[in-house]
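Q: What does the assembled structure look like for these inputs?
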Amino acid sequence: MFNFTIEKPKKPAASDVVYDFVALGGGPAGLNGALYARRKGLSTAVVAHELGGQLRNTHAVENYLGFETIDASELIDRYVAHVRSLEIPIFTQSRVIAVEKEDDLFVLRLEDGGRIRSRTLLAALGGSPRRLDVPGELRLASKGVSYCATCDAPFFKGMHVVVAGGGNSAVEAAMDLAKWASRVTIVHRSRFRADQTILDRLKDVKNVSVMLETQILSIEGTDRVESIRIRNKADGIESSIPADGIFIEIGTIPNSALFSSLVKLNDRGEIVVDGQQRTDCEGLYAAGDITEQPFRQIVIAAAEGAKAALAASAHLNMKGTR
Amino acid sequence: MPKLIPQDVADQIKSILADMKDPITLLYFSDGKCQTCVETGQLLEDIAVLNPKINLVVKDSVADADEAKKYDVRRIPGFVVLDKDGHDRGVKFSGIPAGHEINSFLAAIMELSGATPALDADVLARIRKIDKPVDIKVFVTLSCPHCPGAVQTAHLLAMHNPLVKAEMIEAQTFQEMSRVYKVSGVPKIVVNDKEELLGDQPIESFLNLIERL
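A:
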C-alpha cells in the first residue's frame, strides 16, 4: 500500500567539501556505482531527484539473477537500503540544473542554489520515454496518449487500449493494462523483441491481441484518442483501430542534455564510452541507458555502474589525489 | 481499524520525522463513511503518533461545514496542513495520500515544519512576485511514481506565497471530477482551471506558466 522512497532531508555538503565520486542518477547504474565506489574507500554521494530510475515504471522484475520474481519497488528499496548501509549520502531534495567542470573538479549546480563538488562523476540519468513521432501524439498527450502504464491504467477501466511496441516493457505494460481494460491490442512495426518467457505468459492473457509487422501512422481524435491509424506492412493496406487510449512503450531517449557540453554524444544523443565506462572528459564516467550500449537491462546498468566506479577508483589512485 | 502502515515503514518514517523543527497541524475533514474516509483517517493517525510535533485534528465535514469552508476543503476525505502558528499555507490533500503519494505527504509535513533546505534565491524571488490568485490542482494516482514530485512542487509554491493554493487530488476517489477535467494521464496539473502542465515538471515550468497567466 505504500511506496515509500522519501529520504531524510540532507543539506548538500558545504561547498568546500569535495567528494571523490558522485553518482548523478538514482537507478541501478547510479546506486551500484555508489556502492562500489564507497567500498573502494572513495568519499561518495548520490544525487537523484527520484530513486529507482526506470524501475519505477514497472511492476515486477523477473530477469534479475537471484530473484525469480521481485516487485520493482521492493528491488528499489533493497538497493537504497544497501547504499544507505554504507552511510552514503543520497541527495533527493533538489534537481541538478547544470554540470560544470572547474579545473579538475566537477560542480553540480542544484535548483535550490546548492553546489556539490566531486573529483569524478558518474552520469547515470537513464532515459525518458521515446515518442512515436506520429501526427496526433503530442496533441492528445494525456488525453488518451500515455507513456506510463503503471500510472494511468486505472483511467482505462473497461475500455480498449493499444500498446505500441514489441519489447519486454510493451508486453508487460499490455499484461498490466489487461487487468483494467476490456481489451488490449499490441501493435508493433516488426517482430517481438520481448523475452520468450514473457511471451509465453502473454498467451494466457485472454483479452490481449497482437498485430505485428504493423506501423502506426497517426493517432486520431478530437478531444481525446478515438482511433489509431495503422498500415499492415505485408500488404500495405491502411485501416483504423477504434481505441480509447494508446500506451507508447518503444524504448527511451537518453537524458544526456546536462552533459552535452562536456562529453561526446553520438547521433542519438547517447554518451559515448569505452570499455571502462570512461567518456572523453577525464574523470567523467557514464553508465546505463544514458550510454550507447544497446541492451536496456537492469543488470547491465548495474554492472556498468560498478565498472565506472572501479575505473574512477583506479583513476584517482593513479593521480594520487586520495 | 487496524494500522495501515507496517511497522518497518513506520520506523523509517519516524526517523525522517525526527528532523521536524516546528510543530504542524493536520486538519482533517471527513464524514466517517465516504469512500476512503476511514482509511485516510487511519493513515493520518498512524503518521501523527510517530512524532509529537504532529497535531491531528479531525473535523466532521457536515457539523463543521463552516470550518471546511474557511479552509476551502470542498472534497472529503480532505485535509490541510497548517504551520506552527496554525496558519493555512495553501497545502491541501483530497483523497488518501497512500501508495507513492505518501512521499508528497511526508514532504509537506517536513517542509512546513521547517526541516528542508531553502529554495534558490532567484526561484524564491519569482514565487514571491506572484501577485494574483493561483489555484493549482494536481491529479494523481497512487500507483504513479512521478506524481509526488509534481505535488511537492505545487505545495512548495503555495507555502511561499499566500496567493497560491495547491491541492493533491487522488483521481480514483474523485472520478467524476477527473472526468470533468478530462484526466486520463497523471500527474496532470491544472492551474486556475484553464492552463495545464503534464508530468513531474521542474519548478521553473510552473513559474513560467503562472507568469503567463
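Chain B touches chain A through 48 residues (CB under 8 Å).
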